[in-house]
Amino acid sequence: MRRDDPVFNYPMDKVNPGQTDIVCDDRVSMSLQFSTQWDAFCHMGCQHDAFGDGKMRATYYNGFRACEEVRGPFDYLNDRAPMDGPYGAHALGIERIAETALQARGVMIDLHAHVGLSRIAVGYDALMRILEADKVVAEPGDILCFRTGFDRALLGQAADPSRAFDQHNCAGLDGGDPLLQRWIADSGVAALVSDNEAVELLPDMAAMTNHGTRIPLHNLCLFKLGMPLGEMFLLSELADWLRANSRSRFLFTAPPLRLPGAAGSPVTGVGTV
């Protein structure tokens, strides 16, 4: 047995003769942002004239600086120059959210019930119509959960790999809609969560001709507002129950792992009804 192998059904009498305990231990290696996960505030920064001197610099929420407070093995902004450690987010790491967990009133917004499993960018006008139709009210401190049906489609394809699956075929927020951006900023909500890959609908990179951010909702929430984004949450079962019971609100609990300096964390969210 190698030292890095998982251990299942290991008889402890091999270590201490006569001991009757049987032990299972395991290990996992995974991307921190390739499953149900929270984005830390250090996940998304921006190159801009941070100090008003005409020079483009990369900073994160509250002005923390790339390659100083947020530091990796290479400085990609300067020809991939190697950098000394320690590496990680010395500010804005996911552990800051883990310290106090993330628990609040959740509000389900069921996009799937109105637009189906379709690639539709939901802007301010469409979202207001959905909220009105479902009698959903968002208040300061709420966590808004956007159900698109992507979670159920993804799990269905995992169960049967022969099924056709298009990872882009789902709705998302229109992050570039200025009215939607203003509503999010003014609403006072605590976080945005979705069952899709990015909360907002990601544009086709090849079709982009404009400069600036490609993911404006990430730029707004993580970089400007300090508002967490949760992605690939399992929402469909809860959304179906809430709709069947003429409800939209529930207790949302989703603490990230306490991983010092990390840019995100897997999470097992719980909705209590």
Features:
single chain; 273 residues; alpha/beta; Glucose Oxidase, domain 1; 2 domains; eight-stranded mixed beta sheet; 7 helices; 18 strands; 22% strand
Number of helices: 7
Task: Name the shape in a single word.
Answer: globular
Mean pLDDT: 91
User: What name goes with the CATH superfamily of the largest domain?
Assistant: Putative cyclase
CATH class of the largest domain: Alpha Beta
Low-confidence spans: pLDDT under 50, at least 5 residues? none
CATH domain topology of the largest domain = Glucose Oxidase, domain 1
Q: What's the count of strands?
A: 18
Q: Class by helix and strand content? A: alpha/beta
Largest sheet: 8 strands, mixed
Radius of gyration: 21 Å
Q: What is the straight-line distance between the termini?
A: 46 Å
Assembly annotation? single chain
Q: What's the number of structural domains?
A: 2
Helix content: 10-25%
Notes on the structure:
- InterPro entries: KFase/CYL, KFase_sf.
- The chain has 273 residues and is of the alpha/beta class.
- It folds into two domains: 46 residues, no CATH class; 177 residues, Glucose Oxidase, domain 1.
- Helix content is 21%, strand content 22%.
- The chain is built from seven helices and 18 strands.
- The chain is globular.
